[in-house]
Automatic annotation (TrEMBL):
Designated name of the protein: Methylthioribulose-1-phosphate dehydratase
Catalytic function, reaction form: 5-(methylsulfanyl)-D-ribulose 1-phosphate = 5-methylsulfanyl-2,3-dioxopentyl phosphate + H2O
Keywords: Amino-acid biosynthesis, Lyase, Metal-binding, Methionine biosynthesis, Zinc
Residue span(s) of domain Class II aldolase/adducin N-terminal: 3-187
Source organism (scientific name): Lentzea xinjiangensis
HAMAP family hit by this protein: Salvage_MtnB
Binding site for Zn(2+): H90, H92
Amino acid sequence: MTAELARECARYAQMGWMRGTSGNLSVVLQRDPLRLAVTVSGVDKGEITAADSVVIDENGDAVGSDKVPSAEAGLHARIARVAGAGAVVHVHALAPVVAAEHWPNGVVLQDLEMLKGFGRQDHEEVVIPVVRNSQDMAELGDAFEKGFDPRTPALLVARHGVYVWGADLVQARHRLECLEWLLRFKVETRDIFTGRHA
């Protein structure tokens, strides 16, 4: 699992979605008690190795290690517990952050074929929730849980980044790639649909 975390990080770094040491990934190791492997803090995600992960508990605290997990580890654990996710991906792709800036009450997506790759049908109205940024993971977790819709495996954190989850890292990646496309479309066609012109 830890080697898989490193491979996925390298992929996202190449895409420019994990710049510097930003972003983090996690995968569930067991459910009872909840344990996740999460990337450690402060490591360049383009150079991360299988050794750069740590096991955390349901609160995001390291278990049996002096390694420092990502600052967002607590939110990863909360999402895994509430959503039943097997893996959680957090990146700083630009389109989700810009979309959250334009639609702070949630980004509405509909009539787009790519929604199928996100796990929804193209005719459905899908609202991607947006929460205010905070360094307090309990506060972010409460905001996530308050707006949680089990049909929508994503959360936008305003002026920060996006969380997407799935049964495993591959499904989470596919959902993230599709969501980034959807949000980029939404942002780039904003003037068309609002009647405003650049």
